[in-house]
C-alpha cells in the first residue's frame, strides 16, 4: 500500500484537528495542504517508525510550529509557507490546548500526544490540567442546542451547564432553532446535522448566521462527509458517539477564539 493510501483515511480527522487548533476552516485547511505538500516534496523524511496517522500529525505539527517561528527551508513549498504566513493568528493556541485537543478530541494517548508536540510524556497531564483550569476561567456563554434526540440533547445540556454556561433552548427542527436564536441570541450554537423533521442543522445554522455572528459546533455520526476540504464546512466538529471530554474541549476552543477576536 502506498503512503498516500495509508494517509488518506486520516485526512478528514487531521482537517478537524487543524480547524479546531486554528479556529478557522480556511487557516486549518491551509496547514493541512502545507503538510501534504511537505510529504510529497520529501517522502523519505516522513516518519516510518510510527503508525501512519501519528506520522501525519507529527508532520503537521512540524509545519504548525515552524510557521509560528521562522520559515524553515524545506518545511513546505515557498507558496505554502507564504500562504501560512499571511494567515497567522493574532492569538496562537497555547501548547496546553494543543495537548487537550490531541487527547480529548483526537483520542491520542498521553505518550502519543507527547511525541506529537515534542514534550516528555509526564508533561502532557500537566498541560491538559493547565488547559482545563483555563476552561474554568472562561466567560459564561449562552448556548443554543439544536438536537432532535432527547437523550443526546439532555447529555449535551448537562455538559454545557456543568461547564458553567447557560442553555437558552433545545431546538429539534430548523424553524424552531431559528426562532429560538432570534428570541434570545446565543453566544454559542451546538447543532446536530440531521433533525427531527428531516430538516438540516446546517441550514438552520446558515439561517442564524445570516442574521448575526456566533461560533458553531456541529455534531455528526459521519464526520468524513463534512471534512473533505472541497466546500465551506464546519470549523468545529464533534463525532457521535462522543465523550464528555470531547464536547468540553470543543466548546472551550470555540469560545477561546470567539473571545480572542472580540472587541476589547
From TrEMBL:
Chain positions found as 4-aspartylphosphate: 192
Pfam families to which the protein is assigned, alphabetical: PhyR_sigma-like, PhyR_sigma2, Response_reg
Keyword Phosphoprotein belongs to the record: yes
CDD domains linked: REC_PhyR
Signal peptide per UniProt: none
Domain Response regulatory: 142-255
Protein name stated in the entry: Response regulator
Protein keywords: Phosphoprotein
